[in-house]
Amino acid sequence: MSAETKVLDSWVLAEFATPDALVDATRQMREKGYQGMDTYSPYPLHGGSEALGLPPSRVPFIALGGALTGIVTALAFQTYMNTIDYPLNIGGRPTFSLPAWVPITFELAVLLTAFGIFFGLLGLSRLPQPYHPVFESEEFRSASTHGYWLSVPTAETTVKPDDIKNQLTSLGATHVTVVTGEKE
Amino acid sequence: MSNQHTSTLRVPLVSEERTLGQLTEEICAPMERKPSRMWWVAFALAVVTLAVGVGMVTYEVSTGIGVWGLNKTIGWAFDITNFVFWVGIGHAGTLISAILFLFRQKWRTSINRAAEAMTLFAVMCAAIFPVIHMGRPWNAFWVLPYPNDRGSLWVNFRSPLLWDVFAISTYFTISAVFWYFGLIPDLATVRDRVKGGLKKAVFKVLSFGWTGSSRTWHRYETVYLLLAGLATPLVLSVHTIVSFDFATSVIPGWHTTIFPPYFVAGAVFSGFAMVLTLMIITRVVLGFEHLITIRHLENMTKVIIVTGGIVSLAYGTEFFIAWYSGNPYEKFTFMNRAFGPYAWAYWTMVTCNVVSPHLFWFKKVRTSPAAIFVLSLVINVGMWFERFVIIVTSLHRDFLPSSWSMYTPTVVEVGTFVGTFGLFFTLFLLFTRVLPIISIGEVKSVAAFARGSHAPGHASHPAHGSETPHEHPAEAPEPLPTPALAAAVVRKDMPV
User: Coiled-coil annotation: which residues (chain B) (predicted)?
Assistant: First the structure.
């Protein structure tokens, strides 16, 4: 997207008093058919991902991929270096000594799995993100300390922002606001 | 549904009523106010000690390892003792953050951040010793398998010393990733509190633009669980491999199959002692007594009783096998340990590691920070002597009596060891100034409100389903725990 064509994206943000109120409201809003919502809280909400209807995370598959890469790489380079390229005779032991390859294979598998899921999470969650529309709201800063917030993107629904605001207020939101920011 | 992360039947983990905002304030306070006079005194002391260490290492590297007390018979002594000592201390951090997480021990939340930082600093101290022991540390990169012009002479992958290189470097990297990963939400909290300026910019970058979104938390919890699942075997493997440095040799006293579990238990034993030493000081100096409560300290002393028991059993088993195997060399080594010229070191070790932890059976001792503090120091002295005894007494009476020898550390060796404490405390003191030393997000999930008594931070609005727990105790307790690894597969919600 070129810099000239700035697409404005507006989100309705609602703060709730308690985590339970947030989870409840999220579920009801989803049942009304709203898409692409997200909740924000200072710690993981119990039942938050269920209320949003999030599918199971793909992270475990990334982990499996990392582990397999580590195992194959470690076995390959140890065998190549000590068995094929420069066989070292250490006290007449076999140059292909698989049991001795195990510790390093294990370590490399763990290392690559951890890197895989760490960077995998950043990739899936699009972090680091220098900009997000929610940062436009000063009140939203409480999401990282004590606030429980719900965001409803207006782009994916035909309902007017004011109607969304009313619906959220009737679900118990203590503070409702609309933020407009640039779309990615 | 209720957002409960802890059972109402349990003693609260945060001993005073706090709202979420207050918790954030309190934990961030030490990094936002000016350092106290006490901090400056401690920091000055640590830096001076560190300078001593730097001086000693500089002298040693520029002169050669002849300045150490090593000789032809005793090629490993103070340096390797210190290496194993520091690596061992590092283990408690990962144990608290990973193993206790998998076992759903919620009390870990207020100590895991500091313990993980301690792990990183301890591993840094440990890594110094093998590198300077090389004598020519500028060639340290030779331990890595890189293409070279010596025909590509590769490293020997059958050597436990090389396994150590991979184990320690992986351990350090994973510990750092685990620690940083846990920090991200808290970095965002700090970012949102800071008004502006350089500090804001730094925390903006460090927090990766974290918004606290459920979509991210959802993956975050999976990643955290997986990292914990990875760090658990890793922490066991690291000290196992360290023990292989000894166990795969043919030296009587080293060549034993019980070394891996024995070393791991010893590492946890000494690591928890070090965590206690640090936490007891930290909670008083920073006023965190209601977050790092007596209950936390008490739980750690219980871990010490168990691991101390395993270590004692290992000492007994070694002695028994020395006799039962009928191997005269083995038997001699052990008799020499207990009654030879280094008997004083052996009995120091036994007193500190076998006898002293049993004082923790008394509730009075377990709940007295002063008593725990003294005992934690005693245990660390004992664990240092354990490594010294294993290394030096096994070597100093060689197979040939003509090569028998004695070892005494020189000033340079002692100075280097003291210097690593300087490094350790310098880093730890800086850490208490620049980062939240208690995991803010995790403590919130176990704070008093989570017991369902009232809504967090909004006492005026009653929580949804805010019946008092006593009226409906059946609704209150946590769902039955799923086995951690099964949870990893089916992705059950695992609150931190």
Answer: none
Instruction: Say which CATH class B20-141+156-493 falls into.
Output: mainly alpha
Are A146 and B21 a contacting pair at CB < 8 A? yes
The percentage of chain A sitting over the pLDDT mark of 70, rounded to a whole number, equals 94
Interface of B with A in 397-436 (CB under 8 A): none
Q: Is A59 on the interface with B (CB under 8 A)?
A: yes
Higher-confidence residue of B88 and B464: namely B88
Q: List, edge to edge, every strand of the sheet that includes A38-40.
A: A38-40, A148-153, A8-16, A175-182
ipTM of the complex: 0.88
The percent of residues above 90 in pLDDT, for chain B, comes to 52
- The answer, for B440 touching chain A at a CB cutoff of 8 Å, is yes
Q: Indicate the pLDDT class of residue A76, thresholds 50, 70 and 90.
A: very high
Residues 6+ away with beta carbon under 8 Å from B58 = none
Is pLDDT above 70 for B191?
A: yes
pLDDT of residue B473: 38
Q: Mapped to the 3 state alphabet, what secondary structure does chain B carry?
A: CCCCCCCCCCCCCCCCCCCHHHHHHHHHHHHHCCCCHHHHHHHHHHHHHHHHHHHHHHHHHHHCHHHCCCCCCCCCCHHHHHHHHHHHHHHHHHHHHHHHHHCCCHHHHHCHHHHHHHHHHHHHHHHHHHHHHCCCHHHHHHHCCCCCCCCCCCCCCCCHHHHHHHHHHHHHHHHHHHHHHHHHHHHHHHHHHCCCHHHHHHHHHHCCCCCCEHHHHHHHHHHHHHHHHHHHHHHHHHHHHHHHHHHCCCCCCCCCCCHHHHHHHHHHHHHHHHHHHHHHHHHHHCCCCCCCCHHHHHHHHHHHHHHHHHHHHHHHHHHHHHHHCCCHHHHHHHHHHHHCCCHHHHHHHHHHHHHHHHHHHCHHHHCCHHHHHHHHHHHHHHHHHHHHHHHHHHHHCCCCHHHCCCCCCCHHHHHHHHHHHHHHHHHHHHHHHHCCCCCHHHHHHHCHHHHCCCCCCCCCCCCCCCCCCCCCCCCCCCCCCCCHHHHHHHCCCCCC
Average pLDDT, chain A: 84
Instruction: Answer whether B120 touches A (CB < 8 Å).
Output: no
Contacts of B493 in chain A (CB under 8 A): 44, 46-47, 49-50
Q: Which amino acid is at A62?
A: I
Choose the mutation target among A82, A105, A144, A152 for the interface with B, i.e. most B CBs under 10 Å.
Answer: A144
Q: How many CB pairs under 8 A join A and B?
A: 230
pLDDT greater at residue B481 or residue B239? B239
**Residues composing chain B:** 496
| B4 and chain A in contact, CB less than 8 A | yes
**A102 to chain B, closest Cα gap in Å:** 9
Condensed to tens digits (0 to 9), the pLDDT of residues B139-148 reads: 999 999 999 8
The string of pLDDT tens digits covering residues B300-355 is 999 999 999 999 999 999 999 999 999 999 999 999 999 999 999 999 999 999 99
Closest Cβ opposite residue A88 in set B156, B178, B221:
B156
pTM value?
0.86
3-class SS of residue A37: coil
Cis peptide before B369 (omega within 30 of 0): no
- Contact between B382 and B353 under an 8 Å Cβ cutoff? The reply is yes
CA-to-CA distance for B423 and B51, rounded, in angstroms? 9
Q: List Cα–Cα distances, B28 to A131, B193, B286, in angstroms.
A: 25, 9, 11
Domains and CATH numbers, chain A: 2-56+146-182 (3.30.70), 59-124 (no CATH)
